[in-house]
């Protein structure tokens, strides 16, 4: 049967007429029936049997997580009713308390904008828009979330600011969809209450990690509804949507369709067979699934339900042109290119953009008024709506591809949604959107022998990390406590911390043994061979650092910055400054003035990775971070940084030196490993048992 497309709604009036048309009966729509994945299917069950057929092997469900609960009308988003001038009200009118909450959110956003002038693109400057993948609001963020999406984006945003670029860094919590509804059922409250609770926790954790968001917003906002529905209606007008019938699991007990994420089972993908694949996506291989594909031992009922689909096959030409051009000019990472090509090679299929849920952006169409948009249709739109919450001039960022460069950071499981789904959605509107230039993708962060998981509570979570007293910047992308100990002790304490402390402590010594905290002059620097050799090496490393960071090779940039610290240590050791102080005072002064310049340079180069460290170093240098943190001149040039003896003026009085890092002993590492073993639930139980034992001990 041929493809059937929606007929666009007829205009009703000159302004926002498409919204008004939603109130009226929709035109007849021809449907195509599809099982979406293959032909006849049979589902077997120990208890019930559904007469559904498929060409593939018989399928069994391993585990179905069904939470029986009544979701009250207040579960609807606070903006389910469209603001004027967009009548009519959409299907689920919100509770008055939720309207007040939404208004409060708007008032807070307005107050924030008033207190701090919003960043908008500036003509003649490099305007960089940075986003981190929006974390689900169903739990506390773990180190995998923070390092994979947030920390790398923050490092890049900070680097761009150091270079003098005009930067807007956007993130927020992804608050709609199954994960939120499920968590609300689990905790016995409304989705709005879950979102409020965990948004506050996320915000607190990121603030503790010193993440420099320009705005950390949320997707359950009126702006999200307005932008998302507007994009949908443009896709509808441009004839990129179709209707299809698909199968979905249905719970007879609570009289509702089961969301995909409520089902777990074995992944059917050959070579994967992951035993905890969710009904919407396998976290191991990243393949998108249908919940009816999972292999298990029991089954709910399977029913047909009509949904809306984005016709990706029809958008393929536009999409491939964008990918072919941008993946080269934007230097996409290989893992991003591989994940994208895998989707294209498999063949683009129409993708469902609606779900049978209550908590989400309502679909502005009469037939689908009881459905909401699928989270992976509306979640990337959250970047736009969060920016709209930040400034009414949001279109200067998001509809300005000639003057704005968009950099997006995420884990590898999110790649296809950002390289295929999101750009296809925007391209389908026919508007001049700012599309992603560069994508930065991180692999999963594994915890000891397993994978970090918010859903299962495995790993070290943001609020847990606060209790370790370990600098979060020391974490690597493969987390083990032993590796953390090695990095803290060898790279931070013995290399970086040792160099800075030696330089500042010697300058701070009283005159006769040091310089009385005053930076000395360096009259013979041009003829000092060792210093000139160091400057040549450091200059090359600075160029390499800039090249790496410009290409979003964050880890490489960090290694290069640490290499400058190693060069500084070698310079001190080879100069034997402690002997020069008496034997050759002029040379000693040159070494110290150059070294204190290297200290300042390290504070700048490492600020994207360890902002708290940089603040502490500048404080010990007696410099203000707001006024002095830059290794570029007014024109953005870095030549001065290649002459470290010129970075701190002679006669400048430094502050009081102090150790910047502390070592991690074996006993401390053992205690941390035991403390964070198992899941969050298991750790909580251990804590409760220990407290009870302590309370009952005699």
UniProtKB/TrEMBL annotation:
Domain Methionyl-tRNA synthetase anticodon-binding: 531-680
Keywords: Aminoacyl-tRNA synthetase, ATP-binding, Cytoplasm, Ligase, Nucleotide-binding, Protein biosynthesis
A single cellular component GO annotation: cytosol
Keyword check for Hydrolase: no
Name under which the protein is recorded: methionine--tRNA ligase
PROSITE patterns in the cross-refs: AA_TRNA_LIGASE_I (PS00178)
Biased composition (Basic residues): 29-44
CDD domains listed in its UniProt record: Anticodon_Ia_Met, MetRS_core
């Amino acid at each position: 049967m041929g493809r059937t497309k929606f007929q666009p709604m007829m205009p009703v009036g000159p302004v926002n007429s498409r919204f008004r048309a939603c109130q009226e009966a929709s035109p007849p729509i021809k449907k195509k029936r599809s099982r979406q994945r293959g032909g006849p299917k049979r589902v077997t069950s120990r208890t019930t049997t559904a007469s559904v057929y498929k060409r593939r092997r018989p399928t069994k469900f391993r585990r179905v997580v069904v939470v029986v609960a009544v979701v009250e009308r207040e579960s609807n988003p606070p903006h389910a009713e469209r603001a004027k001038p967009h009548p009519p009200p959409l299907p689920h009118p919100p509770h008055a308390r939720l309207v007040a909450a939404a208004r409060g959110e708007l008032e807070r956003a307005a107050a924030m904008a008033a207190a701090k002038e919003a960043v908008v693109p500036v003509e003649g400057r490099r305007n960089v828009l940075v986003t981190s993948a929006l974390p689900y609001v169903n739990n506390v963020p773990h180190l995998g979330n923070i390092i994979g999406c947030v920390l790398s984006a923050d490092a890049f945003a900070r680097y761009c600011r150091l270079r003098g670029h005009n930067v807007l860094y956007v993130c927020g919590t992804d608050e709609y969809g199954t994960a939120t509804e499920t968590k609300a059922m689990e905790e016995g409250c409304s989705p709005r209450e879950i979102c409020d609770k965990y948004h506050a926790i996320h915000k607190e954790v990121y603030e503790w990690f010193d993440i420099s968001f320009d705005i950390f917003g949320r997707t359950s906002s009126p702006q999200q509804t307005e932008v998302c529905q507007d994009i949908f209606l443009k896709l509808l007008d441009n004839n990129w949507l179709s209707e299809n019938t698909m199968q979905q699991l249905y719970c007879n007990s609570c009289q509702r369709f089961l969301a995909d994420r409520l089902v777990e089972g074995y992944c059917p993908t050959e070579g994967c067979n992951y035993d905890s694949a969710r009904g919407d996506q396998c976290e191991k291989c990243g393949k998108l699934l249908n919940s009816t594909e999972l292999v298990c031992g029991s089954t709910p009922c399977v029913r047909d339900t009509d949904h809306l689909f984005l016709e990706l096959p029809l958008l393929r030409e536009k999409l491939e042109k964008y990918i072919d051009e941008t993946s080269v000019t934007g230097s996409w990472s290989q893992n991003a290119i591989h994940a994208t090509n895998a989707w294209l090679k498999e063949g683009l299929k129409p993708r469902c953009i609606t779900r049978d849920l209550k908590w989400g952006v309502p679909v502005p169409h009469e037939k689908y008024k009881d459905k909401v948009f699928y989270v992976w249709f509306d979640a990337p739109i959250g970047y736009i709506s969060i920016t709209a919450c930040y400034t009414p001039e949001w279109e200067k960022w998001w509809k300005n591809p000639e003057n704005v460069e968009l950099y997006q950071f995420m884990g590898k499981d999110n790649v296809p949604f950002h390289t295929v789904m999101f750009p296809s959605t925007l391209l389908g509107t026919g508007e001049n959107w700012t599309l992603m230039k560069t994508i930065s993708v991180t692999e999963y962060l594994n915890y000891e022998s397993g994978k970090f998981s918010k859903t299962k509570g495995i790993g070290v979570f943001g609020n847990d990390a606060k209790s370790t007293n370990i600098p979060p910047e020391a974490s690597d992308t493969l987390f083990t406590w032993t590796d953390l100990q090695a990095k803290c002790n060898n790279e931070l304490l013995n290399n970086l911390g040792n160099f800075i402390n030696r330089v500042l402590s010697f300058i701070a010594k009283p005159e006769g043994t040091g310089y009385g905290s005053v930076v000395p002059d360096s009259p013979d620097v041009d003829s000092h061979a060792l210093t000139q050799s160091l400057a040549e090496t450091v200059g090359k490393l600075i160029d390499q650092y800039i090249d790496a960071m410009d290409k979003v090779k964050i880890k490489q940039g960090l290694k290069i910055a640490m290499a400058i610290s190693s060069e500084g240590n070698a310079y001190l050791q080879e100069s034997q400054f402690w002997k020069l102080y008496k034997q050759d005072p002029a040379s000693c002064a040159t070494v110290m003035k150059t070294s204190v310049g290297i200290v300042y340079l390290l504070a700048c180069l490492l600020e994207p990775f360890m902002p708290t460290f940089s603040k502490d170093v500048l404080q010990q240098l007696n410099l203000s971070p707001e006024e002095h943190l830059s290794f570029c001149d007014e024109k953005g040039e870095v030549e001065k940084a290649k002459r470290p003896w010129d970075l701190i003026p002679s006669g400048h009085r430094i502050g009081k030196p102090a150790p910047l890092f502390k070592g991690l002993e074996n006993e401390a590492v053992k205690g941390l490993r035991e403390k964070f073993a198992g899941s969050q639930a298991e750790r909580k139980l251990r804590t409760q048992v220990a407290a009870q034992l302590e309370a009952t001990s005699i």
